[in-house]
Specification:
single chain; 298 residues; alpha/beta; 3-stranded parallel beta sheet; 10 helices; 35% helix; globular
Length: 298
């Protein structure tokens, strides 16, 4: 993911901002004795992007990937709607506890921009996506950078028409969604009232998307490393933040690691999972990766 890429990441202040004051309010209503659900993964599983991750002789990339990670942020579904048979194959190849977190097709978000014509397309998309059955995690919608609050009616109509049986997260990138406090509060309220997760994006060039406002009991985080040594410290800070949110009531952590050059994503994910296990007492499998000392990664 090249979104938010900068030429000199060492000049960026990567400090995680203070929580939005309503985040603690939301989490306080979520306090339960339910076990913590943590899913950490990459955005893709193909060999070309995750260079050197797959052992020599690996015949099926998804099958191997799904035995190293417990989830995938499924970006492939942004570019096309796959036939039902493809989802069935993905389902059959992966372990029982594996989950897919698919992105909604660009035909809905970017080309038709949530207009009236998207709903037959959405029905088709959800029909085939449902073939993932219990392995289907939260579906997420990422809007174009130039999709601003003037399209508010389209957003509310989309939310009102969304079927409740599918968990949903939404990502807005136009700065006006967050620069105007009244607009931001209306958006957060809409998501919160409809149990929709507000996607947080941690990337170098768009620190404004770190608004730290949770709208339900799900932290859906898209982390974009800069292929720089600071990536590790940033992940350590996220471990501390998630530990704090867990104490306040958070039960669902969905964390996806991206890179400008994706080859280091498994390595960063392994580091992050190890730190999470240590801090939160979780027991996630640590994926097999290259050694951290490999200079080719940076």
């Amino acid at each position: 993911m090249k979104f938010g890429k900068v030429a000199q990441p060492e000049l960026v202040d990567f400090t995680i901002p203070q929580d939005h004051p309503d985040t603690e309010v939301v989490l306080s209503r979520c306090l339960t004795n339910d076990p913590l659900n943590i899913y950490v993964g990459c955005a893709k599983w193909n060999r070309q992007d995750l260079k050197n991750f797959y052992p020599r002789g690996t015949k099926d990339e998804l099958e191997y990937y799904s035995r190293q990670f417990n989830c995938i942020e499924l970006n492939a579904t942004f570019y096309r709607i796959f036939p039902a048979e493809t989802y069935n194959k993905w389902y059959d190849k992966t372990p029982d506890d594996f989950k897919f977190f698919p992105k909604i097709t660009q035909n809905i978000s970017h080309l038709r921009r949530l207009n009236e014509q998207v709903y037959p397309i959405l029905d088709e998309y959800l029909s085939v996506t449902s073939n993932l059955k219990e392995k289907l995690g939260t579906i997420f919608l990422q809007m174009h950078n130039n999709f601003g609050p003037k399209n508010w009616d389209r957003v509310t109509q989309f939310v009102e028409n969304w079927p409740n049986e599918f968990p949903l997260a939404m990502e807005f990138r136009h700065t006006d969604w967050f620069n105007d406090e009244k607009v931001a509060q209306e958006l957060y309220h809409l998501l919160q009232e409809n149990n929709i997760a507000n996607v947080l994006v941690d990337t170098a060039g768009r620190r404004d998307l770190m608004h730290m406002r949770l709208t339900n009991n799900e932290a859906f985080i898209r982390y974009v490393g800069a292929n720089h040594d600071s990536d590790y410290a940033r992940l350590d800070d996220w471990v501390e933040k998630l530990f704090d949110w867990k104490k306040k009531g958070l039960n669902n952590i969905h964390f996806f690691v991206h890179q400008n050059m994706e080859l280091a994503s498994p390595l960063l994910s392994a580091h992050f999972i190890a730190k999470l296990n240590e801090k939160l007492g979780s027991n996630l499998q640590i994926p097999k990766t290259l050694q951290e000392s490999d200079p080719k990664l940076f």
